[in-house]
């Protein structure tokens, strides 16, 4: 019985190794749907470097910025579904179809493979600010709607969505409570 289990395990290992060696048989393209130099680009390049070791093929990072990441997402969705063109997706790739009925990519056009990283969100104010707690800040926003602004990559990027969620949870209209100032680099 021990010999049978050993032979079965060896056969499975050999079969899985042979299957794994069939992909990839050529270089892989990783589309980062934002400009170079930002957090997404750095994450994509780190992934490409690590993946090369495991895949045995080069992984080329291609930056395709535009439309809050949806330009690159659209290009990947339209590529051959052969596993050789991958998307470094961000939260916005999933949020856009959920909140925008005219999104260039539908939610079900993606096949999510794995999470890549966790990005912490930090709420901070200037050292000399009168706000010393989240409650103080929310009270200030509520008392003077629209007077405060925040910078974010876009409404469906994680930084913008986090602020909008905070405002909505405080029962404020995220569109009028504070003003979104889009970051120019779109990362």
TrEMBL record:
Record bears the keyword Signal: yes
One Pfam family cited in the UniProt record for this chain: TctC
Entry keyword set: Signal
Signal peptide segment: 1-20
InterPro entries: BUG, Bug_dom1
UniProt entry tagged with the keyword Lyase: no
Family membership: Belongs to the UPF0065 (bug) family.
Listed name of the protein: Tripartite tricarboxylate transporter substrate binding protein
Organism from which the protein derives: Vreelandella olivaria
């Amino acid at each position: 019985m021990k010999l049978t289990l050993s032979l079965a395990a060896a056969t499975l290992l050999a079969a899985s190794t042979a299957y794994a060696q069939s992909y990839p048989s050529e270089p892989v393209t990783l589309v980062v749907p934002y400009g170079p130099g930002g957090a997404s680009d750095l994450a994509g390049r780190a992934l490409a470097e690590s993946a090369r070791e495991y895949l045995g093929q080069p992984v080329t990072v291609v930056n395709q910025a535009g439309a809050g990441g949806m330009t690159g997402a659209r290009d990947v969705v339209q590529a051959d579904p052969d596993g050789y063109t991958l998307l470094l997706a961000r939260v916005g790739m999933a949020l856009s179809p959920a909140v925008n009925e005219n999104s260039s990519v539908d939610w079900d056009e993606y096949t999510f493979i794995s999470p890549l990283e966790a990005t912490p969100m930090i709420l901070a104010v200037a050292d000399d600010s009168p706000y010393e707690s989240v409650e103080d800040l929310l009270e200030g926003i509520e008392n003077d709607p629209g007077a405060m602004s925040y910078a974010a990559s876009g409404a469906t990027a994680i930084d913008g969505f986090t602020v909008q969620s905070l405002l909505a949870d405080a029962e404020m209209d995220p569109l009028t409570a504070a003003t979104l100032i889009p970051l120019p680099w779109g990362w």
